[in-house]
Design a protein that fits this description.
This protein is 34% helix and 21% strand. It is an alpha/beta fold. It has a seven-stranded mixed sheet, sandwiched between helices. Strands 10-9-11-12-13-15 form a six-stranded mixed sheet, with helices on both faces.
Length: 352
């Protein structure tokens, strides 16, 4: 979910033959745990964002892609977690440890790794890196960016929220006030207003950079959701990593509707008790992007530059688990078709 973009390079299409971004497995805290059996084969390292495997959201989507690559492609994998409040040097050390251990390619999950990836990649030009949700015009040629059109999926989430809201009052909770999360907010607001121009929309950000704890603080998510519920919001969309779990809990306890993010959160075991309150989730197919990147490396021709996965390429979508949007699917399909055809251009700046 997280992305910081300073694009000057040409963004390449995400149409990579990828079908229409919480598995169990090894997990470590800066102690790489490897698995798989590919002697002399591809060894893939993954450095997670805050929250790691098990966040029921962003990291878990990346983990699913890694698991599929391990199972289908026979690659060897290792995983390492980030720590809340860690220094930039910690990220660099994590990536360097993966390089030293012979992992190539290395996938960094989240825009918080941008500076560390650039530095370590420059020092190790023979190692391939991929970074999810970030792209920079200063990154070296051995770094590939895997990005998404989050605003497009969020637009559909906004359409769904406006159609389902009984009070015509909805909410948005962002984990960290960054350029990436503003894309989620912008799309959501535009989608809702396309249905109900005068709809009331509450907006709350949990933290601002350099404090990224907003992606891993369920209590903050719960508090923010309760605040919006008190103001009258009856549908709340959270783009906040595992903090969104707290928001979903609060919304469910109030008998209102939540919209999940990144993974199909109504299908996540840890959120099973709240699934009847999850209207839909804006799914970002990070797993598909991770798998496609590893597969390209396995074939000896790893992706380069920037690979963007949009609605047309099925990089983003709305989950249908629970059937709560079945009755409005026709209107959602119309909105999606307009985006894919170019008839609707979704903003990335919530102030516009």
């Amino acid at each position: 979910m997280r992305r910081s973009t300073k694009l000057a390079a040409v963004v390449l299409s995400g149409s990579l033959g990828i079908a229409s971004l919480a598995a169990c497995g090894a997990k470590s805290n800066d102690t790489n745990t490897s698995s798989g059996s590919s002697e002399g084969g591809l060894k893939v390292g993954m450095a997670y964002d805050i929250g790691g495997r098990g966040d029921q959201s962003f990291n878990d989507s990346a983990a699913r892609g890694l698991d599929k690559a391990k199972a289908d492609l026979g690659v060897s994998v290792t995983e390492a977690d980030a720590k809340t409040g860690e220094a930039e040097a910690d990220k660099e050390t994590r990536l360097k440890n993966l390089v030293t251990s012979g992992y190539n390619p290395i996938i960094a999950v989240g825009f918080v790794y941008q500076a560390a990836v650039e530095k370590v990649a420059k020092e190790n030009p023979n190692t391939k890196f991929a970074i999810i949700d970030s792209a920079s015009d200063t990154q070296p040629s051995n770094v590939t960016s895997l990005t998404f059109s989050e605003q497009e999926g969020s637009y559909l989430a906004g359409v769904a929220a406006a159609l389902k809201s009984k009070t015509k009052h909805i909410g948005f909770i962002g984990g960290v006030q960054s350029e990436l999360i503003k894309k989620f907010e912008a799309g959501y607001k535009a989608g809702a207003k396309s249905v109900t121009p005068d709809i009331a929309i509450e907006t709350t950000y949990l933290t601002t950079p350099p404090d990224f704890s907003g992606f891993n603080s369920p209590d903050k998510g719960k508090e923010a959701a309760n605040g919006q519920l008190d103001k009258g919001a009856d549908v709340i969309y959270s783009a906040a990593g595992s903090s969104g779990n707290g928001s979903i809990e609060a919304v469910a306890n109030a008998g209102k509707l939540a919209i999940g993010v990144d993974s199909d959160q109504a299908a996540q075991p840890a959120l099973a008790k709240y699934k009847n309150s999850i209207l839909t989730s804006m799914v970002k197919n990070v797993d598909k992007a991770v798998y496609a990147y590893i597969e390209s490396a396995k074939k000896g021709s790893p992706f380069t530059g920037v690979k963007n996965f949009d609605l047309k390429a099925d990089g983003v979508s709305l989950a249908t688990t629970g059937g709560k949007i079945d009755d409005i699917q026709g209107k959602l399909n119309d909105a999606a078709t307009a985006i894919k055809s170019g008839a609707t251009t979704v903003p990335t700046d919530p102030s516009k």
